[in-house]
Design brief:
Elements: E1 38-42, E2 45-49, E3 53-58, H1 64-77, E4 87-89, E5 96-100, H2 105-119, E6 126-130, H3 140-155, E7 159-163, H4 165-168, H5 174-190, E8 194-200, H6 211-217, E9 223-229, E10 238-245, E11 253-257, E12 263-266
Parallel strand pairs: 3-8, 3-9, 5-6, 5-7, 7-8
Antiparallel strand pairs: 1-2, 1-4, 9-10, 10-11, 11-12
Helix pairs in contact: 5-6
Length: 282
């Protein structure tokens, strides 16, 4: 079994505090306590917070990646997501890094086209790492380490989306997974950033197909969303619900896929009438 993390680990970042005792505080230290800020809200309730890790879970056919696509688009448009009532961005000039360990290079290229055409995304604000383009040879793990480390350090994204945890490092050891998770936690704690990871079958007993990274990351997540599809028809309704959070739980909402291949919110489990006119004006 091959480990992605070894004694010469390149996934290194500075710790969140300068002095070791700075990790000890009380309510009397309010002036120096770090604060979490909302990056994306839905109906005035935080959906994605800076300095935190979020997980989107559901079956492989539950459109989990589409919900992540909605979050990414909200940040890139810099205002209100045009296909959902109340979904808003609260950070200026946000940068999104999409790490795709599932789809082909051509599929991820289409994602870049969609973000460019519909939300005016450019290379300064949106980058994709198509890990499947690296192949499956033994050097894959070393290549992933190098690509992710270089891209994250150079790009400094506000949101890292991982699609998905099941396939990110299929042969990683427990020690390697711990090293990568520690790297992600350190990154969000020292940057105005968040991680949103897709992990299938992460609710309840974690299945082996999820891999060590998912097993470790799941209990550390500040919020977990559960995505479920009501039918397999073309007009299938997908419901998103908050399964776990440390704060106020965002309200459930449902969406279907519109003509732009993006999630569009529906009310009362029925598609709302729309003229499909895209308006991203803020």
């Amino acid at each position: 079994m091959i480990s992605i993390i070894d004694t010469s680990d390149i996934f290194d970042r500075e710790k969140a505090v300068e002095d070791n005792m700075d990790c000890v505080f009380s309510p009397d230290d309010l002036d120096r306590l770090p604060q979490t800020s909302a990056m994306v809200t839905n109906s005035h309730t935080a959906t994605i917070n800076a300095h935190e890790i979020a997980i989107i879970t559901g079956t492989e056919a539950a459109r989990t990646a589409l919900f992540a696509k909605m979050i990414a688009a909200t940040l890139l448009c810099g205002g209100s997501y045009p296909f959902a009532q109340g979904m808003k961005c609260h950070i200026d000039n946000a940068k999104v890094l999409w790490i795709d360990a599932v789809n082909s290079l051509h599929d991820t290229a289409q994602l870049a086209r969609d973000m460019k055409q519909l939300f005016n995304a450019d290379g300064k604000h949106f980058k994709i790492v198509a890990l499947t383009a690296l192949g499956s040879e033994q050097m894959y793990y070393k290549s992933v380490k190098s690509v992710l480390n270089t891209t994250i350090n150079d790009f400094n994204p506000n949101l890292i989306i991982i699609n998905d945890l099941d396939n990110l490092f299929p042969l990683v050891t427990l020690g390697g997974a711990n090293g990568f998770v520690d790297y992600l936690r350190n990154y969000v704690s020292t940057s105005e950033a968040a991680v949103c990871a897709i992990g299938h079958n992460l609710i309840g007993k974690v299945k082996k197909t999820t891999g060590y990274v998912g097993e470790i990351l799941y209990p550390l997540a500040s919020i977990v969303y559960r995505v479920s599809e009501r039918s397999k028809k073309e007009s299938a309704i997908t419901r998103v619900s908050c399964y776990k959070t440390f704060r106020q739980c965002p309200r459930d909402f449902a969406f279907t896929i519109n003509d732009y291949n993006f999630p569009e919110q529906v009310n009362n489990e029925a598609p709302k009438s729309t003229d499909n006119t895209l308006n991203t004006s803020q």
